[in-house]
Write a structure and sequence with these properties.
By secondary structure, chain A is an alpha/beta fold. Helices cover 38% and strands 19% of the residues of chain A. Chain A has three domains: 104 residues, Elongation Factor Tu (Ef-tu), domain 3; 252 residues, P-loop containing nucleotide triphosphate hydrolases (Rossmann fold, 3-Layer(aba) Sandwich), CATH 3.40.50; 126 residues, Up-down Bundle (Lysin). Chain A is built from 17 helices and 18 strands. Chain B is α+β, with helices and mostly antiparallel strands and 133 residues long. Helix content of chain B is 59%, strand content 15%. Classes of the chains: A alpha/beta (520), B alpha+beta (133).
Chain lengths: 520, 133
Amino acid sequence: MTTTIVDKLRKHIESFEPTVEAEGVGTVVMVGDGVAEIDGLPNALMAEMVEFDTSTDVPLKNAIQEEGKLFGMVLNLEQHTVRVVVLGDTRRVKEGMTVRSTGRVLSVPVGNALVGRVVNTLGEPLDGKGPIESELMYPMERSAHPVIERAPVNEPVHTGLKAVDSMVPIGRGQRELIIGDRFTGKTTIAIDTILNQKNEPKEKRPICVYVAIGQKESKTAKIVAKLKEAGALDYTIVVNAPASDPAALQFLAPYAGVSMAEYFMEQGKDAVIIYDDLSKQSVAYREVSLLLRRPPGREAFPGDIFYLHSRLLERSAKLSKEHGGGSITALPIIETQEGDVSAYIPTNVISITDGQIYLETNLFNKGVRPAINVGLSVSRVGSAAQTKAMKKVAGKMRIELAQYRELEAFAQFASDLDAETTKRLNKGARLVEILKQPHSSPMPFQDQVVVLLAGNEGLFDTVPVERTAEVAETMLAFMKSQYTSLVEDIAESKDLTEHTKEKLIAGYEKFKEAHKDLFT
Amino acid sequence: MKAAHYAEALYEAAATTDEATQESMVANLVRILDERGHRALLPAIAREYERLERRRSVRERREVRVARAVDRDKHADAIKRDAEKLGVDPAQCVTRIDESVVGGYAIEANGTRLDKTHKRALLELYTRLVTTA
């Protein structure tokens, strides 16, 4: 064994040819707060990756013990100096240290080798499963695909959440913002979407990329564990830039994630990317910009804060068939303060995305979870991103719920209500109960169709309101066991024919007969 | 106006002038400082000016780095060829002794460097062995 190792080492040494090229160099003249000022680097490019030579003036045996290469990114080009954000531990940078140009912009490894892995912003593994074997590198900053290469969004991404798939449907290639105060279930919606992709057929299943920006490591660890337990990590990449990372790595993490997703899109596959969350990315970018002495604007954000998000989100697209037909669906998350959606960053991102899912704290506290405010939530793609089956059952739900909310407020003050109003209130209350869903329990779309159709047909009208969800669950289990072929037919054809509908309605009656105790 | 601003203005103005003009520039600066009541900034301006000078010398550095003085002669031909590649006369390159490079040489001029030191090669070999092993 030892001889083999020695032979291998000898072979490497004998065949070794050092690569010697002329390289642009500079010297660190100042460093602090994650930013280094460098004299020299005469041909530095904007966003170029530079390497800090940590072996400068250090004996060889100490240089070998260094923790690995240290990179930086050029973000300010001044007359004689260059300001670089350090992408790692700033304590390793010293004044007088030599800095080398790499001649290339900041890039990350991409490819199938990343699927199932947890990596940092630079694509380095964090999960202890060994190095990432990927030969292809994509730059973090890439131009979005032009209009001519795109196709309309017409295929759904099923989140597995009844409230979302029925009323705020998301299509492949769409950007749908998830916005709400802290602890309203934003991340839960995103993770449930990833979990639900397990219900998609393998050939149509999108690759998921979860980008954690400025999060607690414990939160990300829980998410990774949940994905692993559910078998969802097999088709997911996790890019982690925790709160303990330098601000530069935090603001670059979403770009790293979308570069990884673009690889799959350009292979003709679909990808879903979640940015959790862009509010923290904005704060990190503000920090970096202020340290680079860029002039502060509104709320001390730099003038290009809009561009930070617009160029990121524009990279999510649905490509035309000529370009492979792949897509990236983006689910950016924004955290609001006290429900203020008219603040600077939320309004910026709302204006970029193709819709938003607005989560409210008071709905969450009332037990309506997911706490979606249907009135303020919208999908600009709409029913173009729904299956025919879902379109047929979800058609009037938004209006009914909106009418219910209006009447609900009115009913608190009025004493005698007419029959029509009472009927709407009863139906609306039961609809709210049907749309409630526990977390980590995504539902395949065919199951959603069965439940929603039952609601539309008035199956739950004589069920006590507080038991509606329970009865719906029991009914679904009954239908899946007794009418399996119907449910499978909906799953396969993605449509609800009249014949199937009649059979389902007959099934509901049978259920009612078999469970008379559940109905008053 | 901060001392750094005065120093930078003086530095830029003096960069392309002769000594006589530079002397009159300094006299003018002192007069302006007096007029504006900024005479107290003069020591800080001098320090900033020195700092700018130091940084210029770092930028315009032309040096050959070797582990021992004899290595400069040993690699004279190769250094001459590389100096021509970098567009500089090897005679203008100052020799800097740095034992940590172990052997070989590195030549730097006009913000570009060719590093043919043994230290660089050994580090590269080590990195390759460690990552491919």
